[in-house]
Amino acid sequence: MSELTIGEISKPRFEFRTFGQDFTEAAERMARLSVPVPEKVWRRESDEIYIMSRTNDLNNTKIRDGKMDVKSYVQTVDGLEQWDPKLKAEFPISKVQLEQEIFPAFMVEQPALAKDSYSFEEFIAIIDAHPDLQAVKIHKERFGYMVNNTICEVANVLVNGARLVSVNSESTELDDIHTTVKDLHLAGVENINYLQAIKRVIGMKNLPLAN
């Protein structure tokens, strides 16, 4: 089994993640169980925009540092989801890429595009005008760990200013994730990805978070 390295891209990983108001016990256990990790992942902050679609739960689209990143759902195995990078794009984005890759990922009716390329501001204006799409501002404060050779984190997340806490464990090895979930006393807690959590907060899904 190959060793995972925090902060580096590997083959598609499986993931357990959940969201709620309080995961103090899991966070404390994660910190104590973790092996030493590189200082660059001790604490990271970022501002991102997620593009939410009422009709899509399969493609996760976010914008960070002027770049768009789309990950696609692959499969669920033993309760754990696998996601794979689908595309990356930089602004300005061409009309062709918007029509052939971006809007198909949202699974909505495509708007009419008159220009050959679109800046970030122009793209967000299109999203704001679309009845089935919504741009959501996300701020993340992430603390990285490594438990049972799984990449873990505790994250304080602001969803349009609403504060949530997220904990997760990622690996290519299912058994390592399940062991970590048990070690963190999270067995039985619902696995909730970013798309689902954001939709629940903004009212696109009538479901609660884990706590």
List keywords for this structure.
single chain; 211 residues; alpha+beta; Hypothetical Protein Pfu-838710-001; 8-stranded antiparallel beta barrel; two-stranded antiparallel ribbon; 40% strand
CATH architecture: Beta Barrel
Main sheet overview = 8 strands, antiparallel, barrel
Helix-strand string = EHEEEEEHEHEEEHH
Alpha carbon gap, first and last residue: 35 Å
The number of distinct structural domains comes to 1
* Low-confidence residue ranges: none
Give helix % range: 10-25%
Backbone shape: elongated
CATH topology: Hypothetical Protein Pfu-838710-001
Strand content: 35-45%
The helix/strand class is alpha+beta
> Roughly how many Å is the radius of gyration?
18 Å
Looking at CATH, the homologous superfamily is: Hypothetical Protein Pfu-838710-001
Tell me the name of the CATH class: Mainly Beta
- The total strand number stands at 10
Tell me the strand order in the biggest sheet. 1-5-4-3-2-8-9-10
Give the mean pLDDT: 94
**Helix run count:** 5
Describe this structure as you would to a colleague.
- The chain is of the alpha+beta class and 211 residues long.
- The protein has one domain (14-202): Hypothetical Protein Pfu-838710-001.
- The protein has five helices and ten strands; from the N terminus they run βαβββββαβαβββαα.
- The chain has helices at residues 24-33, 95-106, 120-129, 174-183, 194-202; strands spanning 14-20, 44-53, 59-64, 67-77, 80-90, 93-94, 117-118, 133-147, 150-159, 162-171.
- The strands form two sheets. It has an eight-stranded antiparallel β-barrel with strand order 1-5-4-3-2-8-9-10, surrounded by five helices. Strands 6-7 form a two-stranded antiparallel sheet.
- The longest helix is centred in the middle third of the chain and has 12 residues, at 95-106.
- The radius of gyration is 18 Å and the shape is elongated.
